Amino acid sequence: MQPSVKALLALTCMTLSSVSLGAQTLTIATVNNSDMIRMQKLSKTFEAEHPQIKLNWVVLEENVLRQRLTTDIATQGGQFDVLTIGMYEAALWGAKGWLEPMKDLPDGYALDDVFPSVREGLSVKGSLYALPFYAESSITYYRTDLFKDAGLTMPERPTWEQIGEFAAKLNKPEQEQYGICLRGKAGWGENMALISTVANAYGARWFDETWQPEFNGPEWKNALNFYVDTMKKSGPPGASSNGFNENLALFNSGKCAIWVDASVAGSFVTDKSQSKVTDHVGFTYAPHQVTDKGSAWLYSWALAIPTSSKAKDAAKAFSAWATSKEYGALVAEKDGTANVPPGTRASTYSEAYLSAAPFARVTLESLKAADPSKPGARPVPYIGIQLVTIPEFQGIGTQVGKSFSAALIGQTTVDQALAAAQQTTEREMKRAGYPK
């Protein structure tokens, strides 16, 4: 028999009671997506069990969050006690000594239950620097009713060219039905996360083995031409303003026939309180093209503690609670099994969860297949599928994202955007002293 959520929470609290926690306020910086908003709502349970800890939330749009956190931690500003970060920041900031190692976790936290690829992505030289709240790959969402009506069949493993053909056939802008929705908002973690996986699928890479950028190669040209042409032909208006949240809203309102994005959206598109199309959503693998290597990303939103925090014990208590099996059980009790944060723990993928979450198997297999050390068809000197784990990438990726967004809205051509990306990246990498 499974222990009740109340009993599990009581166990967690007893475990944490050994930590010396005075009356403290934790300032938690997080991203404005549905899972984090749910965490904020359910954190009343944590506060009830820890009356000496008050939670102060700073909830920001993704690009803004990254800018604020980067500035604060680089200057040791100390504004935040808990940071919501990804694998990119965990690896770089942990190596710089800006994050507290996540050691001495509560009894029963079951770190071994966390998938090894997720643990490794948040670690540096064997030291864990962030606790994963959820992990994701990228998958393809599509409207089964629209495909059936059009006499189309989605392959289990589609190519991007097939996706483009389906999108063109299902695009009916006069009915506010768009063939495809993809990220267009500029940012290294917004449009470049998606476009990099398209480029990987077409055989492109950010850098060759001597750290020379390759935007002047045919693979990037083929990938970006496909992305821009498909979005102009079959995408929604104003796509250059759309990131994850905007495309989720479009899909849930019935305006997208196909959407390729983070697997974490599976619980949102099947939630009747959020989506109008819950009964007509299909799930399959992210598209490939000349290769399937790097065609689906690996990412985790995780909780970390900056060394500048003055409330480290309380911050660790909260971070451990919000990423625990007990928190998952609380979500299942309050909001349904399908809404348990996905992708981090083996124990999540029980038969009950797999039955309740029709997207779970594709997500799990995609996470298992993702290999950040081999993100493409050819060797690379970097780690990362939809990003490059070097300090310079944040600035470079943002500038390249702006160039590609400009091509999407017709301010520049694809060739001009790629030339600008090549020039920007060459300049910044030379300035940083590459190859090192």
Description:
By secondary structure, the protein is α+β, with helices and mostly antiparallel strands. It has 17 helices and 10 strands. It has helices spanning 5-16, 34-49, 62-74, 87-95, 116-121, 144-149, 160-170, 191-201, 218-234, 244-252, 266-269, 312-322, 325-335, 351-356, 360-369, 393-408, 414-431; strands at 24-31, 53-60, 82-85, 123-124, 127-128, 131-136, 138-143, 258-262, 281-285, 299-304. Strand 4 and strand 5 form a beta hairpin. Helix 1 (5-16) packs antiparallel against helix 13, helix 7 packs parallel to helix 9 (218-234) and helix 16 (393-408) runs antiparallel to helix 17 (414-431).
Would you kindly provide a brief summary of this structure?
The protein is of the alpha+beta class.
SSE order, one letter for each helix or strand? HEHEHEHHEEEEHHHHHEHEEHHHHHH
Shape verdict: globular
CATH class of the largest domain: Alpha Beta
Beta-strand segment tally: 10
Largest beta sheet: what is the strand line-up? 2-1-3-10-6
Query: What value does the Rg take, in angstroms?
Result: 21 Å
What structural class is derived from the secondary structure elements?
Answer: alpha+beta
Indicate the mean pLDDT: 94
Number of helices: 17
Describe the SSE topology.
Layout (H helix, E strand, L loop, with lengths): L4 H12 L7 E8 L2 H16 L3 E8 L1 H13 L7 E4 L1 H9 L20 H6 L1 E2 L2 E2 L2 E6 L1 E6 H6 L10 H11 L20 H11 L16 H17 L9 H9 L5 E5 L3 H4 L11 E5 L13 E6 L7 H11 L2 H11 L15 H6 L3 H10 L23 H16 L5 H18 L5
Parallel strand pairs: 1-2, 1-3
Antiparallel strand pairs: 3-10, 4-5, 6-10, 7-8, 7-9
Helix pairs in contact: 1-13, 7-9, 8-9, 16-17
